[in-house]
Every structure is written in structure tokens, then in C-alpha cells.
């Protein structure tokens, strides 16, 4: 089980315990801020989130306009595009907002692929170092994507977000005004 007080040095990959956010690696003496010493939990979640998002590129071609139209006609607040399983261990779904759906299936597919390929993380987009939020640009439009980590029944937040068997990921792609 991962411990919230275990950190990883970005310079040498040394894992070590610390009561507070470290600024120096006890092994290689590298110094830095929180981005240089992520917690082992955040690093694990980031790797899982990256793997999950990468799989979205495989799903994008199968998304269909009919599903968008039906959900828009019904006035849905969020539109589930697909359920995605990455290997046997990472489960979840991808949803878009009505504003996204209103742009059409080609735009949505491009947004899903852009989300899958995004790797631009900064202090603004990734303050927790878990790769659960990002900004992308599709056809000149700025979009946000975020990954929510829910319990297996999607009734609340996951109590063990680094444990794929207890976590259901929900990727939401939206316009900034819809957040």
C-alpha cells in the first residue's frame, strides 16, 4: 500500500519517507520544490491517469453522432460517450458537456484525441502532480479536461485513488465556461 508520506526524488528516483513536503533528497542531495519531490501516491495516480488518457485515442474513432444527438435532445447535463477499460485494471468512462456535443462528432473526436495526447502539465494545470486536469486547444477553441477519481460505484470519491480496483475514472472534456 502506498503511503502519503513517501516521496520520490525526480533526479534519482529515490523513494523516502518525510513528514512534510521535502526540499532535498537524502540520497543524491538534489534540491527543489514540490514538483521535484512528488508523493509516491501522486506519481502512481499520474501514471495511471496518463495510461487511461492514452487509451482514449483508441476509443475516439468509435464515437458516434447519434449518441450525441439523443443526449442533446434529452437535455442531458453531461453526455457519456463511452465506457473505457484499459487492460483489466483501469476502468472508467468519458463524458462531454452539451456545449462540446453541440460542436459535432468530428470536433468531439478531435478533442478526445487531443486529451489523450496532452502532456503539458504545469503548476496551474497540475498542482497536485497527479495529471488529473489539463488544457487543450481544438480547432482554435480552448478546452479543459479533468479526471475524477470515484469509488467503484461512482457514488463518491475513491478512498484509495491509487488502487485501480477501487477507483473508477471519469474523464470530462468541456469548455472553460462549463466548468
UniProtKB/TrEMBL annotation:
Highest taxon of the lineage: Bacteria
Family matches, as InterPro entries: DUF3768
Pfam families (alphabetical): DUF3768 (PF12599)
Entry protein name: DUF3768 domain-containing protein
Protein source organism: Paracoccus halophilus
Higher taxonomy: Bacteria, Pseudomonadati, Pseudomonadota, Alphaproteobacteria, Rhodobacterales
